[in-house]
Amino acid sequence: AQSVAQPEDQVNVAEGNPLTVKCTYSVSGNPYLFWYVQYPNRGLQFLLKYITGDNLVKGSYGFEAEFNKSQTSFHLKKPSALVSDSALYFCAVSGPNYGQNFVFGPGTRLSVLP
Amino acid sequence: GAVVSQHPSRVICKSGTSVKIECRSLDFQATTMFWYRQFPKQSLMLMATSNEGSKATYEQGVEKDKFLINHASLTLSTLTVTSAHPEDSSFYICSAYLRLLNEQYFGPGTRLTVT
What we know:
The complex is a heterodimer of chains A (about 110) and B (about 120).
Chain A lengths: L2 E3 L4 E5 L4 E3 L2 E3 L5 E7 L5 E7 L5 E3 L5 E5 L4 E6 L8 E8 L8 E2 L3 E6 L1
Parallel strand pairs in A: 2-12
Antiparallel strand pairs in A: 1-4, 3-9, 5-6, 5-10, 7-8, 8-9, 10-11, 10-12
Chain B lengths: L3 E4 L2 E4 L5 E7 L6 E7 L5 E8 L5 E2 L8 E7 L2 E6 L8 E9 L4 E4 L3 E5 L1
Parallel strand pairs in B: 2-11
Antiparallel strand pairs in B: 1-3, 3-8, 4-5, 4-9, 5-6, 7-8, 9-10, 9-11
């Protein structure tokens, strides 16, 4: 069975500084990995995904994530954080039925301080 | 990206009544839709997989008689919370699977409060 861990409940970063939100996963076979962002009382917005190819994936709003197979990680990064990036971030993994049967991580709340 | 809507966005109902939540894929046909539940400050938990024209597949621990799912068309799935109780209060999110692109698109969610 697949699982996702986000070891940090909360990440605080100053505006303009780089940010990292961590994610590790466990899945049989090749993983399909995703990052989503959720603003208060809103649904999920897709940021980026890794299926195959380059380990560094670039996504929406300047976010990127690096797939590291040996460490089974898929950390989300942004070179320069904005206050508007403050939200709840979810990492998700999908198994062989790509696009279906998502398993979400517990979420990490990102606060970007002005 | 593809658009998925949910209606209503929030609903308050009395204990014992039933509430229907609609999930629509506005610009594509979705043979599969998913229903998730999110408790405050927690992650999304998959409740069921809704397949057009067939019975939904429920995750372990989800009562199928309490959470009725109907996927009568390729653009609409409904979740009916029957005989709602305060513990059913939650944020319900649907998603629609676009097979052509192998993508899952999420609705904006419905906040249900049972008093």
